[in-house]
């Protein structure tokens, strides 16, 4: 099926008043996540680069081919109702609706949903382990990041430590190792800085150490790569949340050799010397331009909904 600009409708949590209130409160108390908004922004930018017009959070006046619900269970429930009334032919749901497939009364198992989008293969594997019957409907799709253009060629030095809900023991181990090896560094803690500060720092450092327990995609990593910054990622391979534990997770599901390295624990920090020695050989920007621009991501999304 070919989708014309008029046929693509996107729905988000912002379409529901209660979701907007919840998001406002979370942002007010510093517990909001920029992920869903960043995914939405990237997809819309990419679709517009492809000369597509996008209807956002609008109830269709007449039947439409596909409704793309990016976030919000309230938005998904509403679109499911529209499909049952004949206003929507196909529903594509995800990637920012629920954490687990059995959340919110198993809403993702609703037969009205044709395609379920998740951000990484490990997330699909987790979902299939919990709800095997969903496997044929699940597609993996990664959002893009905005290309800042040519990367400034000024002098770079030191490392940026990006700390996102990382336990104290691993952060302390990294800091001690950097001090012992006389490598200068700066620290950014997730939720306590403006995005512009992050981008500005990426223009000054030689590399980044990324500390988080797990990532469904890792947009901040792609934002570093597209600015020419390689990453050393703590990747213990474990997800914990909602009373569950999954050993097939990743802190950097899209990290490849062209963009950096991984270490599993404090005992593996000797890899830092290899990382520093390889800083000039990584090809992070080239990889990101090939795989993670808004346009490339939008093209992949269109191929998924066209299946």
TrEMBL record:
Lineage of origin: Bacteria, Candidatus Wolfeibacteriota
Q: What is this protein called?
A: Glycosyltransferase
């Amino acid at each position: 099926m070919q989708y014309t600009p008029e046929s693509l409708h996107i729905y988000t949590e912002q379409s529901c008043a209660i979701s907007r209130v919840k998001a406002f409160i979370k942002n007010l108390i510093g517990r909001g996540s920029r992920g869903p908004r960043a995914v939405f922004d990237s997809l819309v930018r990419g679709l517009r680069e492809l000369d597509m017009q996008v209807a956002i959070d609008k109830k269709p006046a007449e039947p439409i081919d596909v409704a793309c619900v990016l976030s919000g269970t309230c938005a998904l429930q509403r679109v499911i109702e529209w499909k049952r009334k004949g206003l929507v032919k196909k529903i594509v749901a995800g990637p920012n609706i629920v954490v687990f497939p059995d959340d919110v009364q198993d809403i993702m198992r609703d037969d009205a949903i044709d395609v379920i989008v998740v951000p990484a293969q490990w997330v699909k594997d987790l979902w299939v382990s919990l709800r095997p019957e969903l496997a044929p409907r699940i597609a993996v799709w990664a959002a893009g990041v905005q290309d800042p253009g040519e990367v400034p060629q000024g002098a770079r030095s030191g490392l940026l430590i990006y700390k996102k809900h990382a336990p104290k023991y691993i952060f302390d181990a990294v800091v001690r190792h950097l001090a012992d090896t006389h490598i200068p560094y700066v620290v950014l803690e997730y939720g306590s800085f403006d995005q512009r500060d992050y981008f500005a720092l990426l223009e000054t450092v030689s590399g980044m150490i990324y500390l988080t327990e797990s990532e469904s995609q890792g947009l901040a990593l792609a934002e570093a790569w597209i600015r020419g910054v390689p990453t050393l990622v703590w990747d213990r391979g474990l997800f914990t949340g909602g009373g569950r534990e999954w050993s097939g997770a990743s802190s950097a599901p899209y990290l490849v050799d062209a963009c950096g390295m991984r270490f599993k624990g404090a005992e593996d920090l000797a890899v830092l010397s290899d990382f520093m020695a390889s800083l000039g050989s990584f090809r992070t920007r080239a990889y990101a331009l090939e795989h993670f621009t808004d346009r490339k991501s939008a093209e992949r999304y269109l191929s998924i909904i066209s299946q």
